Amino acid sequence: MRVIFSKQVPLQFYVFPALVAAMLLLLSYRIGNYISKAQQYTTYTNHTHVTIAPSICQISADETVVKCGTSTTLNVDNGITNPTWSTGATSSSITVTTSGQYWWQYVDTSRNTVTNGDFSNGNTGFTSQYNYIAPNGSTGSFGALSAEGYYSISTNPRNTHTQFSSFGDHTSGTGKMMIINGSSQNNVTVWTQNITVEPNTSYIFSIWGASAHSSNPAKLAFSINGTLLGTIQFSSTPGNWQNFTIEWTSNSSTVASIGIVNQNTVTNGNDFTLDDILFAPVCRKYFNVSLYPNPPKPDITSS
Ligand SMILES: [Ca+2]
Predict the structure, then answer these.
(1) What is the pLDDT of residues 48-95, one digit of tens each?
(2) Ligand 1 centroid to 302 CA: how many Å?
(3) What is the dihedral sign for C-alpha 289, 291, 295, 296?
């Protein structure tokens, strides 16, 4: 009787498939590793956008710029004509060669929150602790602004005081301006207005002013919600329009009482004009730049 033995499988039949499987696993891992590094390499050539700009600013979102190379060029948005860069440049683009944070900003004058800041509508839209008098009125022998503590609205300081200089407004040269015979009392409010502001937004408070007489030129201060900010010192040259600005951040505030207050207590002189008062948001876009002069290369031999 023939005995049939069960079939014996040689050891190499187990070992060989196991070796092949192990090699396939290792190859798969290395291919995956290669693809991962290749994808990582690819991302260095792309830009990622993150939105953190204030909603009031109609500008593009902040950017994270990650780039292979030794430099990159950053641009302002189309239509922005008055930018200032963190580097001090005022051009429409800058080329940077080091990693870091950069920004450009501009004052959005189209969102000026001041009413009648150019005084084109006359004595309206603001309040003052000074007394108003029409240009053809009189407080003494020199005309409407003979007395300290009075103001008028007119197209020429000479119209309000025979000793004041003759010059046009800042807006157009032919428009109206606020003309003041300065008070001798400290902290008297020359001009003030209550405005609505967006929270957590930076604003520029800007005025233009000129002396109406060369003696003891006006010294003023900005005031926001009762706090005096900055120093406004006029030149002694009559008709020399000067710009004064401060930057202010609203934080949680939604309203602000903004004003210009007297800081000159000399009676003689202290005669001046104001025009083109502006309170507008500052819109700023940030770039977080990372430059990689020697980017990592895909390496299929490493694990
Ligand atoms: Ca004006």
Answers:
(1) 333 334 467 788 999 999 999 999 999 999 999 889 999 999 999 999
(2) 72
(3) negative
* 116 CA from centroid of ligand 1 (Å): 9
- Rounded to whole angstroms, the maximal C-alpha distance in the chain is 151
Domain residues for the domain of 18 are: 11-43
- C-alpha angle 182/183/185, rounded to 5°? 145
- The residues of the chain scoring below 50 in pLDDT are 1-9, 27, 31-54
| Positive or negative torsion for Cα 251, 256, 152, 131 | negative
Query: In terms of domains, do 75 and 190 share one?
Result: no
Give distance in angstroms: CA of 119 to centre of ligand 1. Answer: 5
Ligand 1 centre to CA of 210 (Å) is 12
C-alpha 260 – ligand 1 centre gap (Å): 17
Q: Do 161 and 222 fall into the same domain?
A: yes
CB 280 within 8 A of CB 82: no
What pTM was computed for the model? 0.72
DSSP 159: G
Nearest C-alpha neighbor of 107 from the set 248, 230, 232 = 248
Measured between its terminal Cα atoms, the distance across the chain in Å is 61
Nearest by Cα to 191 from 119, 243, 121: 119
Q: Both 51 and 194 in a single domain?
A: no
CA dihedral angle for residue 256, residue 261, residue 263, residue 269, rounded to 10 degrees: 160
Burial of residue 224 (number of CB atoms within 10 Å: 0-12, 13-18, 19+)? buried
The structural domain count of the chain equals 3
Q: How many other CB atoms sit within 10 Å of the CB of residue 277? A: 24
